[in-house]
Specification:
The protein has 98 residues and is an alpha+beta fold. The protein has one domain (2-83). Helix content is 26%, strand content 22%. The protein contains four helices and four strands, in the order αααβαβββ. Strands 1, 2, 3 and 4 form a four-stranded antiparallel sheet that branches. Strand 3 and strand 4 (75-83) form a beta hairpin. The longest helix is centred in the first third of the chain and has 11 residues, at 2-12. The chain is globular and about 45 Å long.
């Protein structure tokens, strides 16, 4: 239920993590024109405990072998990603990128 709520919130607020040009300024965003300002494109990452990797897979997350495996507090973790399909105008579409 918590995962579903978080994913729903992300879909409803796709521009929340986009940098603010007015607050940061173009120089800090490292963009010369507004078309270069990065936007979130629906990619979600979790650091999943190995023992519950299958649970995250049921939510549509896929293991990223490139992230490898690591321990946090003695518990094995893996990186998993899921791309949310964003609607028109919602953070740049559901295409590639972050």
């Amino acid at each position: 239920m918590l995962v579903s709520g978080a994913l729903t919130w992300l879909l409803e607020n796709p521009t929340y993590f986009n940098p603010s040009i007015s607050a940061m300024g173009m120089d800090k965003i490292a963009a010369e024109v507004t078309g270069e300002v990065p936007v979130w494109k629906g990619l979600v990452c979790v650091h999943a405990q190995e023992q519950v990797e299958r649970v995250w897979a049921k939510w549509g997350f896929e293991r990223d072998e490139g992230m490898g495996r690591w321990d946090e507090e003695g518990i094995g973790h893996v990186g998993m990603f899921r791309r949310l399909e964003l609607g028109e105008g919602g953070g740049g579409g559901g295409g590639g990128g972050s």
